[in-house]
Design a protein that fits this description.
Length: 247
């Protein structure tokens, strides 16, 4: 797998590239946003937001305008707004400095499981026993098998990975779609934070759980009403159809 590392700080880029090489990744490194935009296509981009020639957010926007390459933002910025903007522009994940190589590798693997599932084949699940109990996991997959799901004015098409609200197509990032589709697998059910991280990110996800809050916040903003995703204090989240939005 070939990675494009966009990082101007040699003290960070050198050890990081060396560590990623040890995990079997081929790393091409550039120091500027202009060089990143001119670089040959990669399987995944590791994008520092603090670049000397242009803001990494602008690099992310330009890349996403003509490419579906997975993007993981690497940032020293602590503001939630910066992370939300990057995710809304199409970044698949973010990682705050400082971080370890193992954590970054876990993020890379989690992103590629979603964006390139053919590289991570999953075992076929056993069929449920007729008349037996149906788990939340089974219910979620049954909803996925139906393809198109209508929840009030919201329509989720898992075949095309598209979402419309009142007939208007929503521009969701891959992670936002996965999160919404997972919650919609059993509308009204409460999903714990760990269940969501395991299913939407990765069972071996080692990053901060705050990333879930960032994605929920971005998704609520795009849905136009925070009532779509309710917070269940101390547990997690659930998808609800706001009052007055029932079909």
């Amino acid at each position: 797998m070939r990675l494009l590392l966009v990082e101007d700080d040699d003290r960070i880029a050198g050890p990081l590239a060396e560590g990623l090489n040890r995990y079997g990744f081929a790393v091409d490194r550039v120091k500027t946003g202009a060089a990143a935009l001119a670089a040959p296509a990669a399987d995944l981009v590791l994008l520092d937001l603090g670049l000397p020639d242009m803001d990494g957010i602008d690099v992310c926007r330009t890349l996403r305008a003509h490419s579906a390459v997975p993007i993981i933002m690497i940032t020293a910025r602590g503001e939630e707004a910066d992370r939300i903007v990057g995710l809304e522009l199409g970044a698949d994940d973010y990682l705050a400095k400082p971080f370890g190589v193992r954590e970054l590798v876990a993020r890379i693997r989690a992103v590629t499981r979603r964006t390139h599932p053919e590289r991570h084949p999953q075992p076929t699940a056993a069929a449920p026993v007729p008349g037996g109990p149906v788990s939340a996991h089974t219910r979620a997959h049954a909803a996925e098998d139906r393809g198109v799901q209508h929840l009030g004015s919201l329509t989720i098409d898992r075949r095309t990975r598209s979402v419309t609200l009142d007939g208007r197509l929503l521009a969701l990032t891959p992670k936002e779609f996965d999160l919404l589709a997972y919650l919609a697998g059993d509308p009204g059910a409460v999903w714990s934070r760990q269940q969501i991280l395991d299913a939407v990110w990765d069972p071996h996800y080692f990053g901060p759980t705050r990333t879930l809050d960032v994605h929920v916040s971005a998704l609520r903003r795009k849905l136009g009403d925070p009532a779509w995703i309710a917070t269940v204090r101390g547990i997690g989240f659930r998808l609800t159809v706001p009052d007055g939005d029932m079909s």
